[in-house]
Amino acid sequence: MACGHTSSVATATNMVLAPVHRAFGDLQSDTSIQSTSPYLSSLGLSGSVLASNGQAGSLELLRDRVVVARIPTDVFTILIVLLILFFVSLITALLIDRQRDVIALLRSRGASRGQIFGAFFLQSVILSLIALFIGIPLAVFTTLLLAGRTLASNELDALNVITTHPLQVMTGVIPYALVIILVALITMGLSLGSKPSFI
């Protein structure tokens, strides 16, 4: 009776594995364990998609190509971020130059350097926070609007990242916005400190 049970389990196992052999190619399994135990203990897949015999599979080759293709994208991203930071620092320095009459008036009324710097610092922080809370949702909305109109209908899946998790996308942008705010504040401090006639 036990011998009949073992042979029926082996037959059932072979019936299950036959379509798998046809569908996935060369499967490696330990046949000695199959004959003694009714459970499948190990199963290995191999084929052109997966790596086998020390050769890279299609997925590994694709991953390597994606890494190489990201290099120009990363370089352009760094250049764009540096241009944005330069633009922010230039605008901040120009705004400080435009305020030199106000700075001179405050100095003539007895305001100290710390008070003038504190007033400009507080003004910059308030404006930066307003821009942060309005700019990030506006950027996400504008991206959805422009991409929805410019992308083909079969490429709209790229927007699923934004539409399914908009809050996560917005919080992912916050570190970049904080770096820009920090650069603006540092530029403001350097502009005020480098012009002794102002302060």
Summary, kept brief:
The chain contains seven helices and no strands. The protein is mainly α and 199 residues long.
Tell me about this structure.
The protein is mostly helical and 199 residues long. The protein folds into 2 domains: 2-36, no CATH class; 72-194, no CATH class. The protein is 76% helix and 0% strand. It is built from 7 helices and no strands. The chain starts with a helix and ends in a 5-residue tail after the last helix.
List keywords for this structure.
0% strand; 2 domains; elongated; 7 helices; 199 residues; mainly alpha; single chain; disordered N terminus
**Which structural class do the helices and strands define?**
mainly alpha
The quaternary organization reads as single chain
What is the β-strand count? 0
The number of helices is 7
Strand content: under 5%
Uncertain residue ranges: 1-5
Determine the mean pLDDT: 75
Radius of gyration: 32 Å
Shape: elongated
Q: Please summarize the sheet with the most strands.
A: none
Number of domains: 2
The N- and C-terminal alpha carbons lie at a distance of 101 Å
Name the helicity range: over 70%
Encode the helix/strand succession as letters: HHHHHHH
Question: Helices, strands, pairings?
Answer:
Elements (H helix, E strand, L loop, with lengths): L1 H23 L6 H6 L21 H41 L1 H9 L4 H38 L9 H5 L1 H29 L5
